[in-house]
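Query structure, 203 tokens:
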């Protein structure tokens, strides 16, 4: 709903290169609260990327409230051996729903909420990619320099050259003015778009 030059799709690319910066992206309000507490107590620069509007990820009930997060540690939301879907921030919810659609096609997806764009949970990523050789990354950001690029760098540094990666995000263009739902659908960032891209990728 912002104009072409005011879309928030560049920040991952221009922030993740800053030395020693801790860069977080919450999937819901509870994670945002935990990340705010983390940032206040962290001895160094930090940034939290959160979307405008309401979260689309349902929160846990009060008995399972998130009390803290650990530096550079991601969260596995679903287990699967056919494909790993790695999401950041408000793309987590549609990825969970896309995984449910894939399951109807007998495709089992591991869904990861990355939480920390920087530092990445490289141990988890490498561990998963030693078992599963298809990775889909999803971000509401430019593909150039985005968090999908960080995943590719991680795999290259670990010499995991047999892993195929499909990045879903914004190409080399300005995003036009429009409602969020319409734009997410246009760029394949809604649950249906993620589902179709992942299914085609696995053929």
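Result returned for the query:
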């Amino acid at each position: 709903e912002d104009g072409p030059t005011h879309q928030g799709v560049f920040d991952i690319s221009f922030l993740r290169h800053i030395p020693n910066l801790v860069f977080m992206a919450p999937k819901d309000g509870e994670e945002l609260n935990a990340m705010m507490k983390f940032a206040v107590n962290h001895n160094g620069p930090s940034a939290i990327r959160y979307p405008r509007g309401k979260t689309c990820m349902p929160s846990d009930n009060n008995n399972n409230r998130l009390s803290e997060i650990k530096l550079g540690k991601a969260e596995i939301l679903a287990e699967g051996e056919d494909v790993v879907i790695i999401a950041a921030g408000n793309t987590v919810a549609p990825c969970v729903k896309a995984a449910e659609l894939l399951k109807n096609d007998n495709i089992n997806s591991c869904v990861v909420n990355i939480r920390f764009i920087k530092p990445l949970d490289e141990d988890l990523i490498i561990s998963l990619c030693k078992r599963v050789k298809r990775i889909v990354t999803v971000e509401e950001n430019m593909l150039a320099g985005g968090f999908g690029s960080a995943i590719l760098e991680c795999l290259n540094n670990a010499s995991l050259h047999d892993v195929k990666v499909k990045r879903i995000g914004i190409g080399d263009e300005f995003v036009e003015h429009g409602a969020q739902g319409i734009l997410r659908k246009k760029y394949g960032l809604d649950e249906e778009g993620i589902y179709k891209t992942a299914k085609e990728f696995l053929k």
